Amino acid sequence: MKRFLIIFMVLAFVVGLTYAGTKGKIAGRIIDAETKEPLPGVNVVLEGTTLGAATDANGYYVITNIPPGTYTVIVSAVGYRKITVKNVKVSADLTTTLNFEMESEAIGLPPVVVEAERPLVRADLTSSQAVVDAEQIRELPVENFQRVLTLQAGVVVGAGGDIHIRGGRSTEISYTIDGVSINDPFFNTLGMQIARNAIQEMTVVSGTFNAEYGNAMSGVVNIVTKEGGQKYTGELLMYSGDFLSRRKNIFFNIDKVDPFNNSVVEFSLGGPFPLLGKVLSFFTSLRWENNKGWLYGVREHQPSDQPNFNDANNWIVPMTGDSAIVPMNPSRNLNTTAKLTFKISPTIKINIDGLYDRSWYKSYNHLFKYNPDGTYQYRDENYKIGYSWSHALSSKTFYEFKVSYNYQKFRQYLYEDPLDPRYQPVERLSRPTSFTFYFGGTQNDHVYRDSRTFLVKFDITSQVHERHEVKTGFEVRLHKLDYVYFTILRDTLKYLEPTIPEITSPYHNRYTRKPVIFSVYAQDKMEYKDMIVNLGLRYDYFDPKATYSRFIWYPDPNDPTIPPIVLRDTLTSVAEPKHQISPRLGVSYPITDRGILHFSYGWFLQMPPFTYLYENPEFESALFVGTPTFGNANLKPEKTVAYEFGLQQQLTDNLAINITAFYKDVRDLLALQRTRISQEKVYNLYVNKDYGNIKGFTISILKRRLKGELLAATLDYTYQVAEGNDPNPDAFFIDLKSGREPEKFLVYLDWDQTHTLNGTVSIGIPDNWNLSFVGQYGSGLPYTPYVTNNRLELRRNSERKPARMQVDVMFEKLFRLFGLRWSLFVKVYNLFDNLNERYVYDDTGTAQYTLAKQRGEGIVVDQWVGKIPGVHSSDDYYTRPYYYYPPREIRVGFSIGF
């Protein structure tokens, strides 16, 4: 499959391609302008396509199976003036309503030509949904679709960069490209990247969502990719830059300017295939990035350096490094897409698409700041190959059959060869105190994850009645998961050479699992004049195809003399298949032609990520090295019941507001439960025990740019309280002994951000110049205060970190030269160089200082600074640049397009 993909991508770059993603709809009614009577038999077509329809006896028409994009709609009938509507935008899963009043044709009168405006309120929107198209993405200072996602109401970014929608976990979001999932099955997070220049439209459903979507509890992000048209389009974009900050006391080497610190090249090309343009078209894109990052170390030591601290008064610290400044969070990324569309007939289209995504990166490790060559490197390589058959049975009915093969590969290691002699004995990582850096040594773990997913999906949509659009379908996912983990054994006594531990060792785990997922759904979109209802039902089936460990405890009912709470034995059982039924309901009620109320309710269920089902498959517990953790293949589905109530109100021709309140009750969440067998022996087990409760509201204001205006803007505010239970790690042992139910304490979740404010402002003249700003404010995330390892409060997450605020800006000047479209632009991220804190010291609540420096070990270290080369002060150790978000970054570039 890999060889096939490479060959396919090379050919695609030569010939190009296109792809139709999920579909939208245009519908409306046509009447006589004078008599107001309905007009039957009027033709409504989309210019440049084979899509169209004719009105029925009551003047109604509907055109389904429309790929998202911008179209010109032509309305014509014998005896009436032709109407042409330009700039009609169609979005996935939504209805664009176009009603017409046709005038009688008179000699000498020209056709009617009008410019459509995207509606500020959508009558068929029954839950919160944001749609961002390619034009909007291009105008913003953003690098990828995740950044666009974080600007939407209800979206919060955790300290580690993980994305949360309405208080849910980062694993509760479904990411799809053209309707096909790209989630990583191991963790149910985003598994593939897609270049910004390949995106036609991105839809973010942050509330309840239709029965069509499953395996998600918080939101759905659906990306529809661009497709080639009847005209050739292409663009080459190049830019580069560096971080420029006055924070050199925190970010080492930040004052050294490298114009090529972060270089990006983007390319796209699309259009009709030469000589075959009527039946074959193409679109292809590429994005390459080389980023040295903003976190640096110094190569004072090599991994082979062996320090000696046996004499407390005479530390021996070798320094064999070359003292070079080394990037410690660099990355290289390549993303390319290639898509073909064969128009077999006016009603049949075959799509073939490919996506290839590869990245290499390193993560900053503060302990290795002066031994930077000892840290892991990470590699991702992913590809997706898809085939789609789309057949319009009529203007009102069409079906899609999709087949997709996804491969996702992850590697973590320092040296690719596990027997590489450069792996160092574990003693090299010794430190005289916890206030010093590593003076040598290597990270010795190897992790290999491979997932292969074969997906078959069938959907049929039919406008069975002018008021009812029925959609039903099924999906089958066949996964193959391969996982390998081991730690290279090497020391100065037993393992004198790098050694891979035996599979029976707790330092070596591997498994292959083939879970099966099946789902089927049906939904009806009922569009009445005074009400729109989305009603659906979904069924999901999951078979983990694995065994799980059951623990048998004393006392034995047949022998009451045996002491209680003693682990007697473990049994291995086959996990049972799981079944889920999820009802969905959404209602939209127009109160005026500019005001719409909506209510939605639904059950949303998903299985926990596979990695927690299959961890430690050999149930290695006999040695009890550390605290072993057991996966649980018999985990139940997690469940969310969500409610939402909202109001859309258009205030003026170019201004609208959207207010939404939401509530989520989350049950059977994944939790890590600690069970104490004895005072010395403890193990962890994944169980369905966590509970969550999320409530809040969002306010979104949209000011669009009308023709002749300079300003467009958005403003989104979210108030949210996300709470969950706080299980005591030893509670299970105590409750088992006493026979009582565990007591639940609600605490703020790690990603609970009470206040979130996002804004964008775009000022400019289309095709001339544009100045855009993105501003974000987030109140502090919670943390648990400690002093000398003692919790100050009884409950976790009782205090708040400092708030975060950032402004990004982009200026672009466009002009034409030699028949091409040129642009020069500059992007500035974190314009005011704000020092935003990602993590804090739990004894002070800030990243800037800690009380630990004043304690004894810090004094011990500081007395050797300047006396022993290679020993750095406790101030250096506690100045941790990764505790902060990136400083200011400036990028300059140009583009050439046609």
Automatic annotation (TrEMBL):
Gene3D superfamilies: Carboxypeptidase-like, regulatory domain (2.60.40.1120), TonB-dependent receptor, beta-barrel domain (2.40.170.20), TonB-dependent receptor, plug domain (2.170.130.10). Residues 124-220 form the TonB-dependent receptor plug domain. Residues 353-831 form the TonB-dependent receptor-like beta-barrel domain. InterPro entries: Beta-barrel_TonB, Beta-barrel_TonB_sf, CarboxyPept-like_regulatory, Plug_dom, Plug_dom_sf, TonB-dep_rcpt-like. Keywords: Cell outer membrane, Membrane, Receptor, Signal, TonB box, Transmembrane, Transmembrane beta strand, Transport. It is found in: Cell outer membrane. It is a multi-pass membrane protein. Belongs to the TonB-dependent receptor family. This is Outer membrane receptor proteins, mostly Fe transport. It comes from Candidatus Kryptonium thompsonii.
